[in-house]
# Entry
Amino acid sequence: MNMIVTKFGGSSLADASQFRKVKEIILANDGRKIVVPSAPGKRNPKDFKITDLLYLCQAHIESSIPLDDVFNLIANRYKDIVLELNLSLNIDSYLNKIKSDLENGASKDYAASRGEYLNGIILADYLDFEFIDAKEVILFNKYGCIDTDATYSALKKVLIDGKKAVIPGFYGSDPTGNIITFSRGGSDITGALVSASINADLYENWTDVSGFLMADPRIVENPMQIRKITYRELRELSYMGASVLHEESVFPVRNAGIPINIKNTNMPLDPGTLIVKDMEPDFKNPIKGIAGKKDFTVISIEKAMMNSELGFCRKVLSILEQNCISFENMPSGIDTVCVVISDAQLKNKIEILVEEIKRTCNPDSIVVHPNMALIATVGNGMSSNKGIAAKVFNSLSEADINIRMIDQGSSEINILIGIENDDFEKGINSIYNAFV
Ligand code: ASP
# Structure
């Protein structure tokens, strides 16, 4: 590989021993030229993330509370890393400047960004790579949205001749020079933008798990790893709750056709999960993953000759729109249509909705099914493979689970079923066991 962009998450850079692992990984492949670090994450479940502490510092100042105690926690984490790595870097000068900026009313985004900034300075020193401040190359417009064209041309200008560099993740700057951050977990986006700007051969995203699992390990015991998956399949699974990557990070690399490899810093020899643009359907293993979410309500509307009535669905959907409710899904039959809405969206508005649908659409019946869960069974092999749906439904029937809703989206890579919340875990397990 000629050009690999490597992004390391917070747990991969939580302390000096993790920094050592990162260096070993970078040195193991000369293609790993650009490194995008997160801020130090938790070293154990009870520990704090540096980004959270930085937000806390800023909140202290805003409420006129001295920040010394919290700031010292941050400063000590960085000082320990520098000391243990034997670096001659004068980290105190950086820390003092940040502390005084915070005390002088620096913004929330500035505060949060300093976690990545300091980690970038230390990592560049440790690797002997050039440090490139993200504020020079990750450029937002005056509305606070990323300006992709400006960002790509700024990155291209500095990343010439196979330069080896560290660019901190998570932040950039707007046209007036203010620091702006992405949403939480946004270093993934920085890595994707850097990869796309230089048309990298590979975007490696290093974290503390060996990629995606076929199902949530809190529900299925020891699920298998997904070795290779397409962007589309991943999108279907992440929409249903499976997450390792920041959602927005996929688009820049997907557009450029650059594969992403999710890798485990603590087990670097594990192949991880490779996310690619296209792949041949795997007929032996047509299912890539099973994911799902609880707490939906389904409104089932029936009206004879609905299929020939003009504008029926539009009227239903305008009622949702007027009530500021977005829906997840809308399976339909000849005389029926169901609207699936997450309870978080619905916010106790069900009675109003039912009343308005009755008044405006005059249906023959309208039935509300609360406490529903959705399960997505995803795989690009299912479109050209017989019996996949039968297997999903059989497994649920054998587990004595009643299916309330079925939808195979037009993408033909996802079979979505609705069942009772109480059957959710059993349902995921029975589908998983049917395919694995
Ligand atoms: N450090 C930031 C966060 O905790 C960004 C990142 O890790 O990607 O959300």
